[in-house]
Amino acid sequence: MLVNGRHYRSVWMEKNIVYVINQKLLPQKFEILGMKTVEEVADAIQTMVIRGAPAIGASGAYGVALAMLTYAKNGFSRDFEDKISLLKSTRPTAHDLFHAIDYVLDSIRNETDINKKIKAAKKSAEEYANQSIKACKSIGMFGSELIKDGFRIATHCNAGWLATVDWGTALSPIYFAKRQGKRIKVFVDETRPVLQGARLTSWELRQEGIEHYVISDNALGYLMKKGEIDLMIVGADRIAKNGDVANKIGTYEKALVSKDNHIPFFVAAPTSTLDLKCKSGSEIPIEERSEEEVHYVYGFDDKGEWRRLRTTPKGVKARNPAFDITPAKYITGIITENGIFKPHNIEMALR
Ligand code: MRU
Fold first, then answer.
1. pTM of the full predicted structure?
2. Do 129 and 205 reside in the same domain of the chain?
3. What proportion of the chain, given as a percentage, has pLDDT over 70?
4. Among residues 140, 335, 134, which one has the least CA distance to residue 243?
5. Is 102 a catalytic residue?
6. Is the pLDDT of residue 99 over 80?
């Protein structure tokens, strides 16, 4: 998508360097970070410099290409395997990460010559990122059919182009609807504790000139009850075989208030998010992040100084589960690159 008139992806590789938009500094600073080692990529994923399931996946894919380049230099296969394990250990919930890494590994398995292995790894990582963009565009096309002129749409977290390679999942239908000339308003949950909604979704929608309101995480039930929301669309980090969905913490509660208020609740995700090995949501690993994210808020003050402010009393404990599971029964439909499916039929999206 465009930033100040120039097209960007959230992650890309050029001359053996992996570049990402540093999402920790947005919305105040737009900065590109270049990484030459797998360790740097792993750290960027773990610390959420780059985040969102498909973007994590593409970063992992490029990370394998970097691991292959290092292997070509020092020749230790044990070291290569350690680097792959490091990438896989960064964030446990997003299925795209594992899917993408295995995609690139598969492409080099049958190559014997080291230069051919490097070429294949770089090529398939690029292919993975391009396919991801194509899938997100299709999600936008299918999903925009759900949006009528004048719709007021709620979303949670950031499932926009920053969270994918381009276009987004939950936001892609919104971008298409805008291009189709539909008048829309978006209600953006701020999404404590990392504030992906307040910081990133709001920044994206502003860049696209889409009318939106950031709301506190507790406001949606009230707005739905008052008849101010027509549709809710969220992304997904992993979808189980039975259609249960893991997504940003708080998604489950949003699905419940949507159900109670008869508001259609859609999940938008590429099929790379589907994990048929997990029979239901209870088998999806849920990441628990550091207490620090709950105790502190971070950001730039009006003078441009980076600040970290504590909001809880010193010494208290916090819990920070990063995702929750929304049972399939609360989901109206899942928008994929192959069409819109009922959650219990999600396997059909792969055929
Ligand atoms: O912890 P994050 O910011 O990586 O979580 C992101 C989400 O939960 C998104 O909704 C999900 O990855 C879908 S992204 C298109």
1. 0.97
2. no
3. 100
4. 335
5. no
6. yes
Range of 253's domain?
Answer: 138-350
Would you say the CB of residue 236 lies under 6 angstroms from ligand 1? Answer: yes
Strand 333-336 relative to strand 339-341, pairing: antiparallel
Q: Is the CB of 20 under 6 A from ligand 1?
A: no
Question: 182 and 95, same structural domain?
Answer: no
What amino acid is encoded at 166 in this protein? D
**Which of 137, 160, 184 is the C-terminal boundary of a domain?**
137
For atom 8 of ligand 1, which residue has the closest CA?
A: 248
48 and 178 fall within a common domain? no
Q: Could you tell me if the CB of 53 is within 6 A of ligand 1?
A: yes
| Residue that terminates a domain, selected from 83, 107, 137 | 137
List 230, 237, 244, 275, catalytic entry: 237
Ligand 1 near 159 CB (within 6 A): yes
List, in sequence order, every residue forming a beta bridge with 191; answer none if it has no partner. Answer: none
Q: Calculate mean pLDDT across residues 71-81.
A: 85
Region 16-45 average pLDDT: 97
Mean pLDDT calculated for residue range 239-261: 98
Residues 124 and 148 in one domain: no
